[in-house]
Design goal:
Ubiquitin-like (UB roll); binds FE2/S2 (inorganic) cluster; single chain; 33% helix; DNA polymerase, domain 1
Length: 153
Amino acid sequence: MDVTVTLTVNGTKKTITTHPERPLLDVLREELHLTGTKYGCGEGRCGACTVLMDGERVLSCVTPVAQADKKSITTIEGLAEGDSLHPVQQAFLAEGAMQCGYCTPGMIMTAVALLEKNPTPTDDEIATAMNVNICRCNGYPKILNAVRRAGKK
Ligand code: FES
Ligand code: FES
């Protein structure tokens, strides 16, 4: 049976009536047209679908939308302020830390969550925090540089 879920997405309240087990990723992409969050594996193994829920990183492909009820969700589209990119987005650009770009939104969301808790992580702490996020283009050295750079701001 469908349920009605109210969630705040990038600062705007949204009400959705749908199956409670429907993945949050599906709702973001299909109902709210926020296609910056990517579908990779669909089973919690690649990090492409990473978003923040009340500031904590979650894998939206394995998060039932009912769990997001009354929560605040931030997607990659919610990071920039007007024309100003978020410092982590700026750092990824400055370091050229993307090739095809498919993993990039998830990488950036994970880095944002990390740096909010630990603004100056060591390389080991970055590697541990990011280890759910897979880059098929093997861009890890530049991604590490980007997170380091953002951590220094
Ligand atoms: S699509 Fe969610 S972890 Fe891969
Ligand atoms: S830049 Fe292509 S998957 Fe990471």
